[in-house]
Amino acid sequence: MRSFRLLAPALFALALCGAPSAASAQGFSDKQRSDIEIIVREYLLKHPEVLEEAMAELSKRQTAAEAEKHAAGVARNEEAIFKSPRGVTVGAKDGDVTMVEFFDYNCGYCKRAMDDMMALMKSDPKLKVVLKEFPVLGPGSVEAAQVGVALRMQDPSGKKYLEFHQKLLNGKGQADKARSMAAAKEAGADMARLEKDLTSPEVRATLEENFKLAEAMGMNGTPSYVIGKQVVIGAVGVDALREKIGVARCGKATC
Question: What's the CATH number of domain 78-250, 3.90.1170.50, 3.40.120.10, 3.40.30.10, 3.10.290.10?
């Protein structure tokens, strides 16, 4: 039975595609092709679980391929991901595990992700977090990211930036330059310097670097994370992130 379960999909593929070109002289006749299609159809109707198994295997292989792509992207860009001076570091400055988050100030899921980040930093004194602006949701997002980068330029400690980050993500309405500037002012920014730094080449360079990194790792939305060698797409929740941190720290979900 198992041998035919393996044979049926193969016959189906041959029926659709024909024999290899090298054997074209001995290819299936129309009658043979029709017979194979009938056999395969009848078998699949009687055993639809074969299709479920095939889809499960396809999903498994796609997930593995995606993980390999992510790991390769991390390996090629490790220095810029974890140690670039253009990221904002919060949490443990010398932590044993680094969680890098790519975010957009107009991303609703990033608001939840911020709560996850704060909870993780509170419960894990050895966790280092690096924040990278990844404004993919329109002009307002770009404006907010530009203000964030300009604030980072005058705030080596990251304390004002983190306050700004929380205020802007927790605020109501669309994030844009006006709302971002107001949040920066509330966080204690030097507003004259902020206005000047907004036109700095460093702002453009930071966002370009972040976009290149995201592209290299196959990130297509926010929030997205890099934790150790793992790339995580989406707001997966604090428990899932904690497990990824555990794997990066000691090779298993719970250390």
Answer: 3.40.30.10
In tens digits, the chain (255 residues) has pLDDT values of 444 444 455 444 444 444 444 444 457 788 888 888 888 888 888 888 888 887 887 777 877 777 777 778 788 999 999 999 999 999 998 999 999 999 999 999 999 999 999 999 999 999 999 999 999 999 999 999 999 999 999 999 999 999 999 999 998 889 999 999 999 999 999 999 999 999 999 999 999 999 999 998 888 899 999 998 889 999 999 999 999 999 999 888 888
**Residue 202 burial (CB < 10 Å; 0-12/13-18/19+)?**
middle
Query: In what helix (H) or strand (E) does residue 103 lie, and over which residues does it extend?
Result: strand 97-103
Can you name the residues that pair with 98 across neighbouring β-strands? Answer: 128
